[in-house]
Amino acid sequence: MTVSALFTALIAILAQIAVPLPFSPVPFTGQVIGILLAGLLLGRRAAVLAVTAYLLLGASGAPVFSLARGGLYMLTGPTGGYLWGFVPAVYITASIIKDNELSSIYRTALAMISALAIIYICGAAQLSLIMGYSAGQALLVGVIPFLPLDLFKAALAIFLGRQIHITLRRNKLDHVIGE
Amino acid sequence: MELTKNITLGVYLPGETAIHHMDPRTKIIATVILITLLLFVKSYEAYLVFLIFTAAVIIGAGIPLSYALCGLKPMLPVLVLMWVFQLFLYATPDAEVIFSLWILTATDSGLHMGNMITLRVIFLFTVTTILTLTTSIVSLTDGLEILLKPLQKIGLPSQELVMTMVIALRFVLILAEELDKILKAQMARGVAFDRGNFIQKTRKIFPVFLPLFINAFKRAEELIVAMESRSYSGGRGRTKMKTLRMGRVDMAAGGIMILFAALMVFLIVSIPSQI
User: Fold this and answer.
1) Domain boundaries of chain B, sorted by first residue
2) B172–A62 CB contact, under 8 Å
3) CATH of the domain at A98
4) Contact A70 B227 (CB under 8 A)
5) Which of A79, A141, B32, B38 has the most Cβ atoms closer than 10 angstroms to its Cβ?
6) Which residues of A touch B166 (CB under 8 A)?
7) Which domain covers residue A69, as residue numbers?
8) Which DSSP letter does residue A27 get?
9) Along the 275 residues of chain B, how does pLDDT read in single tens digits?
10) What is the DSSP letter of B100?
């Protein structure tokens, strides 16, 4: 539980780090990296707990979402699906990773890609529900523009996850994740 | 790299009105009902009724109008873009053309669709903002905990969830400070976060994130030990410092909500869809 709380806070902090990109109006934020890391490093239960707490915290008005936004509107608005999608996404990621050991790179990559796919499906679904888009339109507006950057973030999350895992073990802190 | 500094907690606007004093559970349920209704509204008349209701609530809660709507400002460009999108792209077969611009034609069905969607987004925003403006995070989490309790049967630990949220709230502040410290420490060692191309910039993230995570885990371990040594077991049998109680205000609010919902359902069913 404490580790979940820690991860909730970490996601919130990562979401506040923004690197402006020259080629896109949407800045690079660490929100998705935080989510993916939660799925990578935590067990299924702890990961889902962490992300659910993150969403509820944001919904209650704490500005924990990217760019210090918060409020229930973030979840119920057109782009809320991307946030809801985090919960099933980390569940699947953590299920694929399963053991606390370092999984093979292919397994990790598979976990990341399925997580992103779930986030996109949920996001596009809510987008089309609220905006009345067709599936194709939703895909065009809400998925394709973000694909390259998110794949990059997933790669970043994999490397970070491995580094963190190795460093934790070196510092004899890896039992914390397991609790 | 920039870090958003204003991690102040919540957008709660303290007040002494009946709406502020309502049980958070009543407010959460009412908000959920309003959101559901909004998804079905498809006529101007129904929106007008909704507008009157929302305005009454805003006035009743003593929220300055500028405050309730200021969050909409950053969304304005997106809203306009959305509206234009619908105006030109959405057309039913029998739609009448309003005007043509080069290859784009604006139809009346597109116009209505654009209006409806823009109104829906604005109202979704306003309704949910009212909830967070009149309810503090702590009472919202208290209310949520009780509302989520039935879900315990399917394995959702509501008490644990709320405890996680409260601890996380504390951690956010600690970690924000810590991140600030690490950033400064690395800058003092000569890391220029704002220089270099995109790849170089991202590589500089590693010496920040790693210490942040490791320190964070150390803190979590400390807290785990501290909680265990005080025999915290959570969950069953734990009592609250403040118990929530539904009062007369909540009864009245419930009644009003039922009446309003009935009226809206009637309007939604009786007026033909204008899209």
Assistant:
1) 4-270
2) yes
3) 1.10.1760.20
4) no
5) B38
6) 5
7) 2-176
8) P
9) 444 444 444 467 777 888 888 888 888 889 888 888 887 888 888 899 999 999 999 888 888 887 777 767 767 877 787 788 778 777 666 667 777 777 777 778 888 888 888 888 888 888 888 887 888 877 887 888 788 777 777 767 777 787 888 788 778 778 888 888 888 888 888 877 777 776 777 777 778 888 888 888 888 888 888 887 887 776 666 677 677 777 888 888 888 888 988 888 888 888 776 65
10) E
Q: What's the pTM?
A: 0.71
Question: Whose CA is closest to B48, among B264, B275, B261?
Answer: B264
Distance CA B210, CA A173 (A): 14
| Cα distances (Å, whole numbers) of residue A64 to A12, A27, A47, A74 | 5, 16, 17, 11
User: Is B130 within 8 Å of B58 (Cβ atoms)?
Assistant: yes
Q: Which amino acid is at B39?
A: L
Residue count of chain A: 179
Q: How far apart are CA A38 and CA A45, in angstroms?
A: 11
Cross-chain residue pair B10–A70, CB shorter than 8 Å: yes
Determine the distance in angstroms separating the CA of A117 from the nearest CA of chain B, rounded to an integer. 24
The distance between the two most distant Cα atoms of chain A, rounded to a whole number of Å, is 52
Q: How many domains are there within chain A? A: 1
Q: Which of residues 117-176 of A touch B (CB under 8 A)?
A: 129-132, 156, 159-160, 163-164, 167-168, 171, 173, 176
Distance CA B123, CA A77 (A): 10
Residue A62: which of B131, B137, B219 has the nearest Cβ?
B137
